[in-house]
């Protein structure tokens, strides 16, 4: 039956190719960048607002264990590095709120509070059941490398002296995780883990550009100096605690300049965050509001999947951040995702399968990150797990009446993590399909030229990988590729699209198909992509 369906699928594609010229891509073996596996990472946030509890929800209140489905999904996603615990709230509470038996503070770790209610007995967000030890156990079970974020807010906001905060909230956190002996190693053992956690990746602070005094609207020299002195003290103290760790700092709005000038060798990565499009409340065309009913369902869909920005020359997705112009250090996008929702008068145009659209938008985002592989070495898709926000990768029902499910945005990143090459390859295309996207939907801007098929090609010693986002709303598309090396007669297709297979998600399925290449040459291959889909074709090189 599957074989018959496959024949029908390709016959339909051939019919389309008879009507229009088939796009042709000539692929070069000259690698233009190395793909770092760590760009397929995740952000496991302990959220604290809008009734979202994030990471805490991974643990069942009934069984006191991580939901089996959550564990399976995280294993399947093949997450190389996972960021924890925050997020906005991290700059407002101490790391030791994540552990028990903290001398002088508490025996049992406190509930997780909204960041504006820290130290107030109000507005509990969650019981805090995903603590540091639970998180590290989960990392071990899923083979995820941890990245921990530390509180720099107490130093910046003068809650503690800079030196005290750097030691208590930075260096002591490192020591608790990584020391092999001494009081912190003893406390860690008392909490159930005698062996060091050996955490390598550490980020100092979260989104400091939002701090009062660093924000472009109220930036001042005194605040910039306070921030720089705080960061320098933290970096020195943390590296003194363990010289082998790697430090990440934010580089938005040039906040890193004084830091790098003072301690260039102590900082390992510069970071930025990227989210698009935020709330969609209306539609505009030519900068004028229009009636949402004048916008077709197809136009809405094709706008949503053209994220975050579009290169006007190629029509392919791209990132737009000034940090990309910096060459001081490798870059990390420690939070990113297609993050939006329909509201107000625009809500009537919310797609029927909006989560698939958001997932394909995340795929467009991921392509943009991969295109910057020469600079971006780490990326963490936000947020890995949640209870209410549609940005969540894994959705948990807090009532536990429904089992956890996976959203398409996480399925996309997991699929790419599982199937990609280590080299980014250049290619040239002819007879390509484009469309105009004339509408403004929040931060999604009008685009005169969007590639209907957004393509990234990677390779390793044995395979080529075609990563294809098909933005076409309702048509299959045949595409022909020519490679420098001869290819084998068979290849594998991994297709994410609407599907009857709801084993992971009710919104999309991943279909795996094995194909035979019936082209007349040994270097060419014609594939067919479904509408509203992301597909990876894994093609074996003929190395005989």
Structure in words:
With 544 residues, the chain is of the alpha/beta class. The chain has eleven helices and 31 strands. It has an eight-stranded parallel beta barrel, surrounded by five helices. α5 packs across α6, α5 (162-178) runs parallel beside α7 and α10 packs parallel to α11. The two termini are 33 Å apart. 48% of the residues are buried. Mean pLDDT is 93; it is low at 1-9.
Secondary-structure map with pairings?
Elements: H1 2-19, E1 24-27, E2 33-34, E3 41-43, H2 68-77, E4 81-84, E5 112-113, E6 124-126, H3 132-142, E7 145-150, H4 153-156, H5 162-178, H6 183-190, E8 201-204, H7 221-241, E9 246-250, H8 257-262, E10 269-280, E11 283-285, E12 288-290, H9 297-304, E13 309-310, E14 317-318, E15 331-342, H10 354-371, E16 376-382, E17 385-386, E18 394-395, E19 405-406, H11 408-418, E20 423-425, E21 427-430, E22 434-437, E23 439-440, E24 447-451, E25 453-459, E26 463-470, E27 477-482, E28 487-497, E29 509-516, E30 524-529, E31 533-541
Parallel strand pairs: 1-27, 3-4, 3-16, 4-7, 7-8, 8-9, 9-10, 10-15, 15-16, 17-18
Antiparallel strand pairs: 1-21, 2-20, 5-6, 11-12, 11-23, 13-14, 18-19, 20-25, 22-24, 25-26, 26-31, 27-30, 28-29, 28-31
Helix pairs in contact: 5-6, 5-7, 10-11
Give descriptors for this structure:
alpha/beta; eight-stranded parallel beta barrel; 11 helices; disordered N terminus
Could you give a short account of the major beta sheet?
Answer: 8 strands, parallel, barrel
The overall average pLDDT, rounded, is 93
Helical proportion, percent range: 10-25%
Give the neighbour order of strands across the main sheet.
3-4-7-8-9-10-15-16
Number of helices: 11
Outline type: globular
- The multimeric state of the shown protein is single chain
Q: Which percent range describes the beta-strand content?
A: 25-35%
Which structural class do you get from the secondary structure elements? alpha/beta
Tally of extended strands? Answer: 31
Low-confidence stretches: 1-9
Distance between the termini: 33 Å
Radius of gyration based on Cα positions: 24 Å
């Amino acid at each position: 039956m599957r074989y018959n369906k496959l024949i029908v699928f390709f016959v339909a594609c051939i019919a389309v190719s008879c009507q229009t010229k088939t796009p042709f891509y000539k692929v070069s073996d000259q690698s233009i960048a190395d793909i770092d596996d760590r760009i397929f990472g995740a952000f496991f946030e302990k959220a604290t607002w809008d009734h979202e509890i994030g990471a805490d929800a991974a643990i069942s209140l009934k069984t006191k264990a991580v939901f089996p489905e959550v564990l399976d999904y995280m294993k399947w996603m093949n997450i190389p590095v996972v960021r924890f615990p925050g997020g906005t709230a991290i700059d407002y509470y101490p790391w030791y709120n994540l552990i028990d038996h903290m001398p002088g503070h508490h025996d049992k770790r406190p509930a997780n509070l909204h960041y504006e209610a820290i130290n107030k007995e109000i507005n509990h967000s969650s019981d805090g059941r995903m603590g540091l030890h639970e998180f590290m156990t989960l990392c071990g079970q899923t083979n995820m490398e941890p990245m921990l974020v530390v509180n720099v807010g107490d130093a910046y906001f003068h809650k503690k002296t800079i030196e005290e905060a750097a030691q208590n909230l930075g260096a002591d956190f490192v020591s608790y995780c990584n020391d092999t002996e001494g009081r912190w190693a003893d406390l860690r053992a008392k909490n159930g883990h005698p062996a060091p956690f050996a955490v390598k990746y550490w980020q100092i602070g979260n989104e400091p550009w939002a701090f009062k005094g660093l924000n472009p609207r109220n930036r001042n020299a005194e605040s910039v100096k306070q921030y720089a002195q705080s960061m320098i003290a933290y970096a020195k103290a943390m590296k003194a605690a363990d010289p082998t760790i790697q430090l990440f700092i934010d580089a938005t709005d040039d906040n890193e300049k004084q830091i790098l000038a003072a301690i260039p060798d102590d900082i390992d990565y510069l970071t930025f965050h990227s989210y698009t499009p935020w709330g969609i409340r209306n539609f505009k065309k030519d900068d004028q509001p229009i009636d949402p009913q004048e916008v077709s369902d197809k136009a809405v869909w094709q706008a949503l999947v053209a994220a975050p920005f579009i290169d006007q020359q190629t029509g392919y997705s791209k990132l737009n951040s000034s940090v990309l112009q910096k060459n001081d250090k490798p870059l990390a996008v420690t939070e990113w995702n297609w993050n939006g929702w329909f509201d107000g008068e625009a809500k009537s145009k919310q797609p029927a399968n909006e989560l698939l659209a958001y997932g394909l938008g995340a795929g467009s985002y991921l392509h943009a990150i991969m295109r910057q592989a020469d600079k971006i070495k780490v990326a963490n898709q936000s947020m890995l797990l949640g209870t209410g926000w549609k940005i969540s990768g894994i959705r948990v029902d807090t009532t536990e009446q429904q089992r956890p499910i996976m959203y398409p945005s996480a399925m996309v990143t997991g699929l790419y993590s599982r199937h990609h090459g280590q080299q980014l390859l250049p290619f040239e295309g002819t007879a390509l399909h484009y469309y105009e996207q004339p509408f403004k939907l929040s931060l999604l801007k009008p685009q005169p030229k969007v590639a209907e098929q957004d393509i990234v090609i990677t390779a390793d010693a044995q395979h080529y990988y075609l990563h294809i986002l098909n933005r076409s709303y309702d048509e299959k598309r045949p595409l022909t590729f020519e490679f420098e090396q001869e290819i084998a007669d068979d290849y594998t297709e991994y297709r994410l699209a609407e599907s009857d297979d709801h084993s992971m998600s009710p919104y999309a399925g991943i279909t795996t198909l094995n194909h035979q290449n019936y082209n007349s040459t040994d270097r060419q291959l014609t594939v067919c992509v479904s509408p509203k889909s992301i597909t990876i074709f894994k093609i074996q090189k003929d190395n005989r």
